[in-house]
Amino acid sequence: MEVARGNKKLHERVPVRRTAWKLADLVILFLLLALLLHRVLHDGGEPWRRAALACEAWFTFIWLLNMNAKWSPVRFETFPENLAESIGELPAVDMFVTTADPVLEPPVVTVNTVLSLLALDYPAAGEKLACYVSDDGCSPLTCYAMREAAGFATVWVPFCRRHSIAVRAPFRYFSSTPEFGPADRKFMDDWTFVKSEYEKLVHRIEDADEPSLVRHGGVEFAEFLDVQRGNHPTIIKVLWDNNRSRTGEGFPHLIYVSREKSPNLHHHYKAGAMNALTRVSAVMTNAPVMLNMDCDMFANNPRVVLHAMCLLLGFDDETSCAFVQTPQKFYGALKDDPFGNQMDVGFMKVGRGVSGLQGMFYCGTGCFHRRKVIYGMRPHSVREGREGTTGSSSNKELQSKFGCSNNLKQSARDAIYGNLSAEPIVDISSCVNVAREVAACNYEIGTCWGQEVGWVYGSLSEDMLTGQRIHAAGWRSTLLEIEPPPFMGCAPNGGPACLTQFKRWATGLFEILISRNNPILMTIFRSLQFRQSLAYLMTYVWPVRAPFELCYALLGPYCLLANQSFLPKTSEDGFRIALALSIAYNTYVFMEYIECGHSARACWNNHRMQRITSASAWLLAFLTVVLKTLGFSEAVFEITRKDKSKSDGDSNTDEAEPGRFTFDESSVFIPVTALAMISVIAITVGAWRVVFVTTEGLSGGPGISEFICCGWLVLCFMPLLRGLVASGSYGIPWSVKLKACLLVAIFLLFCKRN
Ligand SMILES: O=c1ccn([C@@H]2O[C@H](COP(=O)(O)OP(=O)(O)O[C@H]3O[C@H](CO)[C@@H](O)[C@H](O)[C@H]3O)[C@@H](O)[C@H]2O)c(=O)[nH]1
Ligand SMILES: [Mn+2]
């Protein structure tokens, strides 16, 4: 991918200064160590004090991991206007969208994703861009929606280009009315027409029903007759072949792909879908760059591909940029992040931080990859290949890596050695049969797909694992931060959806941690940089934090119930250390939120959600993986429900109070409900003892610190306590309450026995 760049630079790497933050990092580290030292020197050997020491040592370790990840941040500035000289030589991009379930992910949502991609600004977009939609649901409804979207795109894309529309997902764009001046007559007519066409599109999609589509939809949908989601042949449809269109400038090709599934072969969820798309696109358009998007996101900045090119093309050495990840931003996000899943601060602090190490993590969506990197190339083999010191791989080698399709082998050779012809593919439709062959469910058997090639299998967080493999091969990566934000997605709301998502992530991360892909091993045996591996470790240990946090959270209630203490008394030196630590730490976190432009409320909500997540989703993830490792259960990818109401421009949600916590019968709620109840009981018992039983003269009983700890927990778990007494979806179901009560009873017995 050599492009003449002239003398103008395409981007700049700007180190971010943070001297004050570094000092604060060290102060907190010092206080943590002081607390540990105090415990070692002064604490007795009571088990609860030993437990506290272990937990605090763990928290210190986590703090070190955090410090490492945030220590030396950089950001990238891009200058797409400097691409002008090489505009004719820009590489082609294949854009992938994955969808998996027409109910949880309404086709209208995916349609908007696709339309925003078809309308992107890129020179010769009609020839250089192609959009592939993977449908793991194998739903005629999704296919129909895509076909209708292609039809609507003939109106939508020219409209966006003609009027330089800023937001190119129709549901977002039409959710507000622009101000028309008197001179805008033409624009107003256009706008009204396109809007009504969009509304018709939405109605057609929503009114479509599966049986009549399949029966009366003609040959197009006959293929869907009698398919089962987990058992059907490959279905590929070229819904828009731009080479065959006769409309002026045109827009990207659109191809619908539902890969073959068989109940006997694992399909590896999204990673499997991405690999199928990679192969299908390889034999069709074989672009050297691939953009991947979840169906719940849309391109929010029409120039995003140009910005990404500044990073992909702008380094002297390709090794510096294997992929370009964009931050995940959310539209229609609830105010003050009540569910703690907007992750703005994390992206900013950790994202820029790791950019200063080996590069941003791959986050699964909104990411531009180089095809040859996805194909498992190492930086040095790419370099040697270009310099001609090694001949191109033998046919046998290619076959063992990529499988037996000759077309795929040839396309892989072209992608790896950069012989991609400047001429765009002539006839996509003629490639469908080959594409069907490589989308077969047994195609990967005996190949490197899912291991050294493509998206890596073996974790529900396939994104982190795949990104880590790329870094371990010695590549670096970049984070693209631009205004307006490149992509926007929807974050789940409500207790069940949020915690399910957190649980899936944590499960996936823990799976990586205990596998042979452990980042420390990657540092020892591969080219993953040490500090980068610590940064990976910081996220992978999420679920491992759960047992420690749970233990620490139980210490307060335990001491109040058993009339003990685990924190230093006000009279001890240690008390001042603990006090200074909690003040310093909380101020630090608060300042991070303020610096990123968030409110105190958002900061508190995130803190609270961290405690809730840790005692629910992370804990369950921890147990799931332990059970899976022991062979008792299987981890499955639970798809996050997407809120359709947000996608048809209708902002009314079903919930009366959108930020309020909701519940269902899921077991994630059991431990955290129990913990909430325990905190309340403990505080009550503790207070009762202070008032009615004089403990004076009896040293060793709980002090103010234990009360503060417990009180803090009660505040954090307030949403759960409200859930205990509320009804409907705001109330915790009885089955959960009963199981939680059982846990509480066990804990109380335990406290009494000791
Ligand atoms: O069998 C499956 C399951 C999921 N998906 C797709 O995967 C994407 C992500 O699924 P979603 O339920 O939206 O999960 P999120 O938690 O929102 O996704 C985050 O977490 C995933 C890893 O757990 C990453 O893959 C995603 O990119 C990242 O945005 C969606 O487009 C799905 O259609 C499939 O294609 N096939
Ligand atoms: Mn999603």
Describe the structure.
The chain crosses the membrane at residues 20-41, 575-594, 615-637, 668-692, 704-725, 731-751. It comes from Oryza punctata (Red rice). Mn(2+) binds at residues 270, 294. It is found in: Endomembrane system. Helices cover 52% and strands 8% of the residues. The protein is α/β, with parallel strands linked by helices and 754 residues long. It folds into 2 domains: 19-71 and 514-753, no CATH class; 80-328 and 363-491, Alpha-Beta Complex (Spore Coat Polysaccharide Biosynthesis Protein SpsA, Chain A), CATH 3.90.550. It has an 8-stranded mixed sheet, with helices on both faces. The protein is globular and about 90 Å long. The site of manganese (II) ion (MN) has 3 residues, from loops.
Keywords:
single chain, alpha/beta, Spore Coat Polysaccharide Biosynthesis Protein SpsA, Chain A, 2 domains, 52% helix, binds uridine-5'-diphosphate-glucose, binds manganese (II) ion, transmembrane, Cellulose_synth, Cellulose synthase-like protein H1, membrane, cell wall biogenesis/degradation
